[in-house]
Structure prediction request, 259 residues.
Amino acid sequence: MSGALRREWGSHEILTLTIDRAERRNALDPELLTALAEALQTDGVGAAIVILRGAGTEAFSSGYDISRLAGSVEDLDADAFIGEAVSALRACPAPVIAQIHGHCHGAAVEIALSCDLRIASDDLRMSVPAVSLGVVYRYQFLARLVQICGLARASDLLLAMPELDAERAHQWGLVTEILPASQVPKRVQELAEKLATSPLAAVKGTKASLNLIAARAIVGEDLQKAQQVRAQAAASPERNEAVRRRKESMSRRSRPENR
Prediction:
């Protein structure tokens, strides 16, 4: 398992998975996403409840690691890793609770929304700025986003690209609860223990039933068309330039000030 993903078992077979790249605001990369999928596939079966969190309190995750993008159609390879992790979250028989502190952006929003419950701190900042990087987001994510918050709000989030605060994210249904940051771990643990000590056949059966409903939002023909549109956008010269500018901007911010 990747060193960037920590695993801890607690009472009542509660499994906590921690994205541990605090120096990169817990940015997602292929190795971490693969480790997450493998942990869910191997240990999720034996867990009563899974908690997914980011190390520290600054960020659940800042999204997909921009340094791993080239600004070309090859960037669609990241889909396989994101999709693998998302599929593992949904296929995990145990409900998954996202413990969200601070920043949650881009691909991390898809990871969070693929969890069954999302408990967020009141300093939450959430956005999906994919369009500004020339990205048409994964169709599976769009379908889930529309199911959770509706077409109008999904359009707003993806096209207007606002950065939502905790209150607005809660109003839109993107998070289950919001609490002061200091209270979030305790609330997540209480919720996990409540579910873990409930009849597990009912808990896991409810998740499985909800998954059946969610799956109806994706039709094979629509998915194929969406993939064609995404490939066209990913290959555009404008995308290459957008990624170059973003990397340059991030590089400037990370340099120490001259004195």
